[in-house]
Design a protein that fits this description.
438 residues, alpha+beta, Helix Hairpins, Glucose Permease (Domain IIA), 10-stranded antiparallel beta sheet, 17% strand
Amino acid sequence: MTTAVLKNSLLVFLLAVAGISWSQKKSDQLQAEQNKLEKKLSTTKSLLDKVKKGTETSLNELKLIENQVKNRELLVRNFDNQIRSAELTISSKGEQIKELQKRLVRLKEQYKKLLIYAYKHRNKSAKMMFIFSSSNYFEAVKRTSYLKRLSEIQQKQFKVILQNEKTIHKEIKDISAEKEHKKGLLQEKIIEKQQIEKDKSAKQQALDKLRKDESSLMAELKEQERQKSELKRRIKLAIEKEIADAEAKAKKEAEKKAALAAKSSASTASSPKTSTSSTPAVTKEVTFTDTKENIALGKNFESNRGKLPWPVAKGSITENYGKNAHPTLPNVFTNNNGIDIGAPKNSQVRAVFDGEVTSVLNIPGAGKVVIIKHGAYRTVYSNLQEAYVSVGDKVSSKQSIGSLLADDEGNLSTAHFEIHQVVEGTVQRINPTLWLAQ
């Protein structure tokens, strides 16, 4: 019975420790998510402060306010999850404490009986008599082992009692800390909800101002769509030209090798007989094959999906990849081949991965455009005021490759970023949001 109580007590202790560990892991994940959201809110607020210095309300301001509202709502949801997690932890720890206390009572009762027994049989002569009264040698050995085992159990039970008491005190301390943490989260949640209402009010005011002049918004939208279309066309042409040039180079090198091989074969021919029949030469189509280094680079780029750094150090996405509803014009949608990132005025643009610059274009309305090759992948950076790189340059991750143009309002800049993949000679667009670290 004593050994069973001891084992059960140890099991309860281990389960309590495991429960604490899982709860702590969940809490750490929620805290990390909270830190990310607060960082996003800080960046967006900083950009909004710059926008508000201008006299005119802009679409950028509206988009940034929308981001602010969305991130605050996510933060409030995060607080809800943390509060719920704290409540579960408090409840779980309360049950663990009750169970530990029950075990502790039983252990102490068992220990008390052991002490009474030990006290009654405390003199050495009684122990010796207990051993010597054995009917044979083997029974004497068993009785000696029993007395030794009894002493060990006493010591172990004493240690388990102390350990249980320490665990109970620690759990009570942890519960108090969780309760205080929960109070803090509730207060933060109230503040964030109040701030959401303020942000929504600011959004409505910005909407009202912008909707007063829908005609100019439509004209602006048409011009932006024209610029996007031209950007798309020029990027496609640039990548296709790069692929065609590489294939032509590969074909030329293959033909050169074939000519050298034919010349070498003719000079070493030893037979005096020549064939009178003429066989037409078979022309083999040469397909461009990338170098081993570029293939390895492409695989490396692919393995960093979801971990690539942003093309600007600080920014907030103002337009997502694909179809986007216009923030003010009803039933009007735009289509984005990449993502737009609002950033501080004239921010530095940086490469998101190691690669080679294959194109530097100048497109009216889109500024300068830099295309970087990463094996089978291409990253595109547009709306640059200045490019610091040239075709053929090797660049490394986070290296500055240019600076952004200022927006029309003059308080912000917008980085346009795209990712393309070359698959069997065709160019396919990819959602950059899935590749950048969040």
